[in-house]
Amino acid sequence: MSMDEIQVQVEPEAEDSPTKVLICVNQSSIKGYPYPSLSCVDAFEWTLKKLVKRSSKHLFKLCFLHVEVPDEDGFDDTDSLYASPDDFKDLKHREKIRGLHLLEIFIRRCHEIGVPCEGWIRKGDPKEAICREVKKIHPDILIVGSRGLGPVQRIFVGTVSEYISKHADCPVLVIKRKVEDTPEDPVDD
């Protein structure tokens, strides 16, 4: 079979079907609850300014995903090693509320400017959870922010954006943080 004989079959999309954009959001480690991280705010703002322009709002649907990372030992928010079972229930409830407040920031902004959107929370390792969601919802593009970690920090911390760029089943756009927004330690996002 020659190159001229290769045919690619693309499923036809409804002409009025909006472009589905999945944006991953997380909480800030320096500002604390309920502020979003600098990198996800940059990714969101870039998406609004460069992709979803005023005249084309109806052509896009923004989907916000927040991945809740499970606390390995369950003691991050407890003061005592002698925590009761109710303390752990409270921790799980607080994390869910924090995630919902985070999503609310982005969803409220979209509603103010008239951009269709939805958001949800998943639990697990962010890299794997994001790739699972991509397989499940089939976005047209995945947009994530980047903290701008240096080579040494990447070894110890790892980067979600690097992993999903290689493993996600859709195009991935990584928005780098603005130089002026970079804290002394990029891990402090």
From TrEMBL:
One of its GO terms (molecular function) is AMP binding. Pfam families: Usp. Residues 39-176 form the UspA domain. SUPFAM superfamilies: Adenine nucleotide alpha hydrolases-like (SSF52402). PANTHER family: ADENINE NUCLEOTIDE ALPHA HYDROLASES-LIKE SUPERFAMILY PROTEIN (PTHR47710). This is UspA domain-containing protein. It comes from Picea sitchensis.
